[in-house]
Amino acid sequence: MSIQIFRGTRRAVAAVAFAFAIIAGANAQSAQPAAGNPLPDAEVSARADALIAKMTPEEKAGQITQYFNIAFIPGQSEGVQAEVAAGRAGSLLFVTDPAEIDRLQHIAVDKTRLKIPLLFAFDVIHGLRTIMPVPIAVAASWDPKVAEDGQRVAAAEARASGLHWTFAPMVDIARDPRWGRIVEGAGEDPYLGAAMAAAQVRGFQGDYLGSPGHLISGPKHFAGYGAALGGRDYDEVDLSDSELWNTYLPPFKAAIDAGAGNIMSAYMGLNGVPATGNRWLLTDVLRKEWGFKGFVVTDAGAAYDLLTHEFASSTTDAGVRALQAGIDMEMSPPFGAPSVYKMLPQSLAGGTITTAELDTAVRRVLVAKIRMGLFEKPYVDLKQAKRVLADPQHRVVSRAAAERTAVLLRNEGGLLPLDKNKIKSIAVIGPLADSARDTLGPWVFAHDLNETVTVLAGIKASAGSNVRVDYSPGVTMPARFHPTFFDTMPGSAAKRDEVDDASELPRAVAMAKASDMTVLVLGEAQNMIGELASRSSLDLPGRQQELLEAVIATGKPVVVLLMTARPLDLKNSKPGALMNIWYPGTKGGTAVANLLFGEVSPGGKLPYAWPRTIGQIPLPYAQLRSHQPKTAEERYQNELGSPLYPFGFGLSYSTFEFSNLKVERPMVAPGESVPVSVDVRNTGSRDADEVAQLYIHQRYGSSARPVRELKGFQRVTLKPGETRTIRFTLTPAELSYWTSAMHSWVQDETTFDVYVGNSSQAALTTTFEVGKSKR
Ligand code: BGC
Fold first, then answer.
1. Cα distance between residue 486 and residue 505, in whole Å
2. In 10 A of CB 464, how many CB atoms?
3. Which DSSP helix (H) or strand (E) runs through 80?
4. What pLDDT shows up at residue 18?
5. Contacts of 8 (CB under 8 A, 6+ apart)
6. What's the pLDDT score for residue 25?
7. Which atom of ligand 1 is nearest to the CA of 220?
8. Among 18, 167, 461, 718, which is disulfide-ready with 682 (CB 3.0 to 4.6 Å)?
């Protein structure tokens, strides 16, 4: 017996009340809808309509066109400024200098007929000037507050600089670490992804759209982009409806429930229909089913891509089909793809679009401008910008975030934390140990390298004068095989030490031998991950593996710090300790030193499973049980089937014990909630954090369900000996899912297993029944 949702059964009526929450995967830990904007809807609409009534078709098409304004591309900015002055641009992206934003805004407001200010947008992904750890690292904190606080700081800096809108968070689920953009999201899990999505939206936007010091948040890329074939960026995506609804859409729904004012459409085709021309996705799901009220922007040039995808017949047709699918604003790139929204006036004259269709998109963009207060306060307060960008408190937030994101993967014999009073010398080795630019990670453009603390600098500052710290890059980080546009941007080049590997590698090994211990900082350069940075290998680039093995062979204690945002294959190398430090941001080196020397204990957990080899990909923990489950480890004849480190895994300097797992109501009716509690005890000898993770497993029902699914988590700090009772509530939202059997949401009458512990392999278990009880 099951309850179908969105279908006309009698039981569905009772179920509808929680149906929307189900899609969000919402529970106590996820999104709370943002409070309403103080401006009444009717007033905002009336103001927008009054403007629309005065606009020509060309001004309307311009209002829903966003141009890149890239000063370092000769002639590009001049052309854009001419469009702005003619009232044919609604928004600009890629300007971050407050004075330049102010100057451009003056053109829009002072020179144009209708004086409509521009929306200034930018990819404020993990900070503007103060750089937070990369988003996947923040997900590894398993602490939505880290995400919210970091994006609040990012929003404050961006808004003070004159920006109004960020293309973030990226909420695409990523289950293939070859895909470079895994760094921008929250990893493989929809529940963790939904919690991080909502927290980031809250941080960016504040209590309502237009909150002072905040931005419009634009979750992206709608939808399915993370499932690119072969992990190759921009490649097609083919997802079953079950995968789409249960795995890829929940973070978007959570972001929208948290009040996101914008959505960005994706580049690729979803099941053969380009996402940017996909009316089912952009209108039926986004607006009709989810009630999204904001505006939708394309990814850069994605409306023109309707032609590239061999979907539209001409640029004119591409504009028409994007608009009619539900795209409000076209993001028009600086090269390679002419604006297709420029053709809209022609389409209007020819009758292929209606005035109502065009006005709907224009209205949504104007509403955003009105709500953001642009008509009252279009310009930038340059003094305020300077003050906010320099706020030392922002750097404190960045350091604290980095401390909470590190994931300790190995710690043989308690090698970490290091004792400054016992160690006399440390060799810090590796091409990423002293690279400020790499420490920040990709997708940052307005940072300050001078205030960035590298791992070497952090260790030196923390170790004190009694510990000798020597440094060698060891080997050179190779260049990318295919350079990208991002490498040409000012400030993007890493000032990394270039060495002759033949002489430097032996010098580094000799240094390791002559020191009490070695800290090796290895991984991928920041431009080896991110957009257009997929890899066909998980190996350490260049000769880093050789360096790693040679340093381990010295027999001295070795701590490896991995600067990466995807799992890497270290070929069974077994350093004493291994910690994933991600790209930890502006104060990354300070945070890492605090972790190494035990000022704080690592408490991060993997937001994805870490495969043994690339051949295991994809390897999500939430798999379905299948024929001969006992042979799951033997599905490859040459390799174990399980990951090297499971999803949710991460060690601490302390130890924890879970006990007393209780389901308060072992029998519930469909539609009822199930309270669950568990005791967590710090059994070690230092203050430390643990993440209690709750997984469910449905034993039978309308569809087969994964062996485990995350449905609750809480990160807690406990003193030695302290026990805390943690409570979760499994609502009908957590117990329901989309079934392909009936093409609807369903809550089955069935038996559930519950597992609670500190990874997806948690052992403590109990069960409860849904539907067998009669109240
Ligand atoms: C990316 C988007 C980004 C946009 C603007 C695109 O290439 O896919 O995520 O927001 O550029 O920079």
1. 30
2. 11
3. helix 76-85
4. 34
5. none
6. 37
7. 9
8. 718
**Ligand 1 mutation target, pool 67, 225, 299, 484, most atoms within 8 A of CB:** 299
CA atoms of 594 and 437, how far apart (whole Å): 20
pLDDT at 495: 73
CB-CB contact of 207 with 265 (8 Å): no
Biggest CA pair distance of the chain = 81
CA of 299 to the centre of ligand 1 (A): 6
State percent of the chain over pLDDT 70.
94
Whether 2 has a pLDDT exceeding 80, the answer reads: no
Cα 185 to ligand 1 centroid, rounded to whole Å:
14
Give the closest residue (by CA) to ligand 1 atom 5. 300
How far, in Å, from the CA of 265 to the mean position of ligand 1? 10
Write down the pLDDT at residue 483.
84
- Regarding the beta carbon of 531 and ligand 1, being less than 6 Å apart is answered yes
Please state the pTM of the whole predicted model.
0.95
Rounded to 5 degrees, what are φ and ψ at 756?
A: -130, 135
Going by C-alpha positions, the residue among 345, 104, 340, 124 that lies closest to residue 215 is 124
Cα of 423 to ligand 1 centre, how many Å? 46
For the chain, the first-to-last Cα distance in angstroms comes to: 17
* Residue 123 CB less than 6 A away from ligand 1: yes
Torsional sign, CA 120, 123, 124, 130: negative
Residue range 446-505, pLDDT digits in tens: 999 999 999 999 999 999 999 999 999 999 999 988 888 888 777 667 677 789 999 999
Show Cβ contacts of residue 6 under 8 Å, excluding neighbours closer than 6 positions: 12, 16, 19, 744, 745
CB 718 within 8 A of CB 735: no
Give the mean pLDDT of 108-123.
Answer: 98
**Is beta strand 656-663 parallel, antiparallel or unpaired with respect to 558-563?**
unpaired
Strand order in the sheet with 737-739: 2-5, 744-748, 737-739
Q: Is the CB of 300 under 6 A from ligand 1?
A: yes
For residue 167, the ligand 1 atom closest to its alpha carbon is 10
Percentage, residues of the chain above pLDDT 90: 90
Query: Is 299 in the active site?
Result: yes
CA angle, 220 as apex, 218 and 222 as ends, to 5°?
125
User: What's the chain's length in residues?
Assistant: 775
Say if residue 90's pLDDT is above 80.
yes
Q: What are phi and psi of 540, to 5 degrees?
A: -65, 130
Label the pairing between strands 688-698 and 723-730: unpaired
* Among 520, 516, 517, CA closest to 505: 520
Q: Find out whether 564 and 183 touch, Cβ atoms under 8 Å.
A: no
Which residue, by CA, sits nearest to atom 6 of ligand 1? 300
